[in-house]
Design goal:
Layout: H1 2-19, H2 24-29, E1 33-34, H3 37-43, E2 48-52, E3 58-62, E4 68-73, E5 86-94, E6 99-104, E7 111-120, E8 123-127, E9 137-142
Antiparallel strand pairs: 1-7, 2-3, 2-9, 3-4, 4-5, 5-6, 6-7, 7-8, 8-9
Amino acid sequence: MRTLTFPLLLLALSAPAAAQVSTLGDVKMKGGVRLSAQELRDLMPGATVVSRTQAGSTRHWQNRPDGTFTATSDGRGQSGGRNTYASGEGTWRVTDEGRLCVTIAWPRSPDDWCRYMFKLDDRYYGVGTLSNESTASEFEFTK
């Protein structure tokens, strides 16, 4: 009986990882919908943002209405798994094409990117291009 329990436990623990999305194609296949420029403009001012990178870092900030914020990061994606906490000043804006653009002046390696945002259940996913193969990074936006 014990020999059957361990493999079942491993299967149960690995199921959530298999449910994660990693590309825009995954997001679309699960029913994700692209946010319009207006939807982003309504959502972003005052939003608290949690951004999870593909490399494993988790970043937090709150968008000020003037387009600025102060971000913090656990730095896991920069340090091979160890936490290297950092903070940096940043800016955000929404383009007419419906992309969220962010710059963050991290001490080691600044961020400067724009992402199309897709909503899937209570999560958001950002992609650099609209190709189904484009890597999707997870975001949370709350007010």
